[in-house]
């Protein structure tokens, strides 16, 4: 979701099989800043590079791939004059057929978050799978200062509010420094956990948590309640979550992903779903209109087609709501009729 931003700088990737690695999956959210070039680059290139790994659960090999992907972006002729950057979270899932469990290798660069919701009784408990990389953390500050930088206003050199990221060329000089020792580095942290059917994984950028809108625990509880309303469609739950964050005051781009550990054959759809929102045609809404049009085009729609689709979705939703009200009235009428019969 754009939210209040004029452009959408987030990107994501889902692979239900990672290259030639059987019983594997890749899920990633890439929260861009200062432009969308870096997040889109990483969303495309990083999964491809990871697919070439000999072992998907080798932290050392994954770390090298991540650092090299960042270096490739920084040194590419096409992008080397840009200062775009991106936080990143991704999870590699490996299924154990014998144990019927999923090994989840959760990687983090920046301040997006991955949380595993473990099924317990009638509810879920939140298991932290990533830790935010902030310049004010002691270990992060030491690295920043050793590389000739400083932490001002809780930002690297007074500029960046996270201490690890892809891109951000201006904060990775001098380039002669080892990649993991620069003021801002793409050096990841890994946390490996085990999931079983019934659990779910929530991945989200910092726009979901901005200003303490949600904690890890409270967002899992919120999602749990919404999943009761929409038990067969986690995409709807994600959409409702973004709407809720917007209503609570998030001013950032927002991206969220729910991964359930079950057979998703019936749910799978090869076509990306585009759900347009309302369009505002005021004379002071030109930036919104440009962003709306850009979103529509990226999904393969013209503006008239997007508006027509929005009208269709709105009409169908209202018809469904009216049907629900009609059923309620019918039930109520039937009950009254039986009551009169019993009295007579």
Please explain how this structure is put together:
The chain has seven helices and twelve strands. It is 36% helix and 22% strand. The longest helix has 41 residues, at 303-343. Strands 1, 2, 3, 4, 9 and 10 form a six-stranded antiparallel β-sheet that branches. Strands 6-5-11-12 form a four-stranded antiparallel β-sheet, with helices on one face. The radius of gyration is 23 Å and the shape is globular. The protein has helices spanning 37-51, 59-75, 138-146, 216-229, 234-248, 286-298, 303-343; strands at 10-15, 24-33, 85-96, 101-109, 113-120, 123-128, 151-152, 155-156, 166-167, 189-195, 200-204, 256-260. By secondary structure, it is an alpha+beta fold. The protein has two domains: 10-132 and 184-260, PPM-type phosphatase domain (Phosphatase 2c, domain 1, 4-Layer Sandwich), CATH 3.60.40.10; 286-343.
Write down the overall geometry: globular
**Number of β-strand runs:** 12
Mean pLDDT: 90
Name given to the CATH homologous superfamily of the largest domain: PPM-type phosphatase domain
- Which range best describes the helical content: under 10%, 10-25%, 25-40%, 40-55%, 55-70% or over 70%? 25-40%
Which class do the helix and strand fractions yield?
A: alpha+beta
**Sequence of secondary-structure elements:** EEHHEEEEHEEEEEHHEHH
> What is the CATH C level class of the largest domain, in words?
Alpha Beta
Number of domains: 2
Unreliable stretches, pLDDT < 50, 5 or more residues? 329-344
Biggest β-sheet: count, sense, barrel?
6 strands, antiparallel
- The rounded distance between the terminal residues' Cα atoms is 59 Å
Radius of gyration: 23 Å
Strand percentage lies at 15-25%
Number of helices: 7
CATH architecture of the largest domain: 4-Layer Sandwich
**CATH topology call of the largest domain:** Phosphatase 2c, domain 1
